[in-house]
Amino acid sequence: MRYSEGADLDTSSVRDVRGGGGGFGGGRGLAVGGGGLGVVGLLVVVLLQVLGGGDGGSGAGVGGLSGLGQGQTTDNGRLEENCRTGADANESVECAVVADIESIQDYWSGVLGPDYVPTDTVFFSGSVQTSCGGATSGSGPFYCPADQLVYIDLSFFDQLEQQFGAQGGLFVNAYVIAHEYAHHVQNLLGINRQVTPGESGPTSGTVRLELQADCFAGAWANHAETVPDESGTPLIAEITEDDIARALDAAGRIGDDFIQENLGGGTVDQDAFTHGSSEQRQLWFRTGYETGDPSRCDTFATDDLG
């Protein structure tokens, strides 16, 4: 994956609280995604549901700071200094994520028009307080519907390679971010209201929501090289077949069956599925990528999830 060298980066959609302290507390709403990507994250989603108890449809408005706990302050100064152009994104993971966020939101603004309301990503380190409750780095990246913010500890990308054995790379990181922003799209469109909080199983609404998010991420990837920023220039210059193969590799390593068998107790229990099997996650990402059409991502309208 390569970013356009001369493109300007906009860090305004990031809230960097990595130097602002952590802390836990109560919350409301159910975090979505759980990262979708971590063993601990699968447990944290359940924990946050207990803490919150709601359906995630209420809470702070977009752009509100209520998701940040006491003592957590945003300081984007270093990010603004380091992440100025696409050349910086080609050299720095955090700058690449800044570019990913901008591209993903530009894409959804084009698809949904005024129905898309941009939101921010919180960069945290160690732990963070959200309107869905407290979370740690072990939860993986996640989206909190109650404050409509995406949260990520960037060290997760290292964990994805070291613990899960994923090949990794900048596009894999972008896939992770696109998946979480897909949950924001689902929240804006009310799709998540089709899901009963806490339900699990191979055909559950929870699994359907996660597979659709994979498909939405793939749809963005299909258009990423042509999505213009405010200057009219695409931020992303190139996505290669190797990038797509790496994303599919990552999708295969964050399926419920792979996690249960290789990083859990060794036994696959489909009744406990919350994100879909490895094969399903690969299938739905590929569906979005090959069609480039979000309307082909309606996992709630099919009896065949793969």
Could you give the topology of this structure?
Layout: E1 2-3, E2 14-16, H1 39-52, H2 77-82, H3 86-91, H4 93-112, E3 121-123, E4 127-130, E5 133-136, E6 142-144, E7 149-152, H5 156-162, H6 170-189, H7 205-223, E8 236-238, H8 241-253, H9 256-263, H10 278-291
Parallel strand pairs: 2-3, 3-7
Antiparallel strand pairs: 1-8, 4-5, 6-7
Helix pairs in contact: 4-6, 6-7, 6-8, 7-10, 8-10
Describe the structure using short key phrases.
alpha/beta; 10 helices; four-stranded mixed beta sheet; 306 residues
Report the helical percentage.
40-55%
**How many H/I helices?**
10
Work out the strand percent. Answer: 5-15%
Reading side by side through the largest sheet, how are the strands ordered? 2-3-7-6
Produce a short descriptive summary.
With 306 residues, this protein is α/β, with parallel strands linked by helices.
